[in-house]
Amino acid sequence: MRLSRKVTAMAMASMMVFSMTACGGGSSTQETTAATQAVTEAATTEAATEAAKETVEETEAKGAGEGGNIGVCIYKFDDAFMTTYRNALQDILESKGYTVTVMDGKNDQAEQNNQINNFIAQEVDALIINPVMTSAADQIIATVKDADIPTVLINREPTAEQMSAYDKLVYVGCDARQSGTMQGELILDTENKGDINGDGKVSYIMIQGDPENVDAQYRTEFSVKALTDAGMEVEELDLQRGDWDRNKGQEIAQNDLAKFGDEIEVIFCNNDDMAIGALQAIQAAGRTVNKDIYLVGVDALDAALNEVANGNMTGTVLNDANGQAAGAVEAMESLLDGTTFAAGEQSIYVDYVKVTPENVGDFQ
Ligand code: GAL
After folding, report:
1. Does the C-beta of 143 come closer than 6 Å to ligand 1?
2. Residue that wins the pLDDT comparison between 99 and 40
3. pLDDT digit string (tens) for 282-301?
4. Nearest CA residue ID for atom 11, ligand 1
5. 340 C-alpha to center of ligand 1: Å?
6. pLDDT of the residue at 66
7. What is the phi/psi pair of residue 129, to 5°?
8. Given a cut of 60, is residue 249 above it in pLDDT?
9. Does the Cβ of 218 fall within 6 Å of ligand 1?
10. How do residues 60-110 score in pLDDT, each as one tens digit?
């Protein structure tokens, strides 16, 4: 009993430290100091010292493949691609004998902070975190470092400098520039390189994901850059955030098709879910993909693969959920085995793959 009280007290103290950092300091500083003092005082009593020894023995970290407890934080469950990803992650971890708890951050960083703190309080052996906000990376890294928990970040890449703060931290993901470039190449590979009406320029709308996310920023930039690097002139008719969401993709495309009509030659979507929404709007407007308009996405969701095969999407780019999940587990296991990662070597990338009607069968 004494043991669990001590563990809880220490966990509470670190929880407060984290929420203080998350709120930018201020009012909870006093609470934190008080809690830290309480823990320090408790630890000076003989009983607590014994308990502390027991804690060390009891919580001896489990190595790779030893069936440890793994906490997984996903930015939100209601995201098509991250659903495929988290299912893959859970399957791989469970097949290797780990006990896995997956939490839904509900697109709320404060909620996710609590979930991370709870996992720390439960003394999980490792964490896999898909941050809600890239801007929260510093706080998340400080928290897991303070708790000394090996951590793999996925899907939202912090900077190399941010990661260098903790050597038991790795990022596994993809280089979003590559997916953007591939989207541009899909358009360049069409018979008129995207210039359907032959006026010498490619007129497009860009349906962006969450602009706070580097995937959205890079895909937006590099899809167009591939066209201009190939010497094409481009005209951006509209750029709007669709937050990775199918309904928003549909609404944006519907409004733009009503506003710009036949001027739109290409619809770039930062992901497939928004592209599927845009396709609904394209079909409702009586337009035909690959004939009078082009449409590209990223992720290779099952629904998008079907549309590529049917000719209703020009192409997509495989965002390899299985490969990234396997990479994340592999990185987690090296951390559990005691490997540390030097600054500048903390990002592990999985390649994107271009998906066209010619090779779509390989992905279905
Ligand atoms: C991207 C993916 C999007 C969305 C986003 C969430 O990599 O393409 O569909 O899941 O991650 O951060």
Report:
1. no
2. 99
3. 999 999 999 999 999 999 99
4. 155
5. 28
6. 80
7. -125, 130
8. yes
9. no
10. 678 887 889 999 999 999 999 999 999 999 999 999 999 999 999 999 999
Residue 79, ligand 1, Cβ within 6 A:
yes
Residue 144 buriedness (CB in 10 A; 0-12 / 13-18 / 19+):
buried
Could you tell me if the CB of 264 is within 6 A of ligand 1?
no
Give, in order, the Cα–Cα distances in Å from 59 to each of 55, 74, 132, 163, 345. Answer: 6, 25, 29, 26, 29
C-alpha–C-alpha distance, residues 237 and 130, integer Å: 33
State the distance from the centre of ligand 1 to the C-alpha of 245, rounded, in angstroms.
10
Q: At 75, which amino acid appears?
A: Y
Distance CA 345, CA 312 (A): 41
Work out which ligand 1 atom sits closest to the CA atom of 81.
10
What tokens were used for 45?
Answer: 């009593």
Q: Looking up tokens 């630890």, which residue turns up?
A: 43
H or E element, residue 90: helix 80-95
Task: Evaluate: CB of 269 within 6 angstroms of ligand 1.
Answer: no
Query: Cα 313 vs. chain centroid, distance in angstroms?
Result: 24
> Which residues are CB-neighbours of 123 under 8 A, at least 6 positions away?
7, 11, 59, 69
Q: What percent of the chain has pLDDT over 90?
A: 82
Residue pointed to by tokens 């929260």: 136
Count, residues in the chain = 364
The position carrying tokens 């592209």 is 275
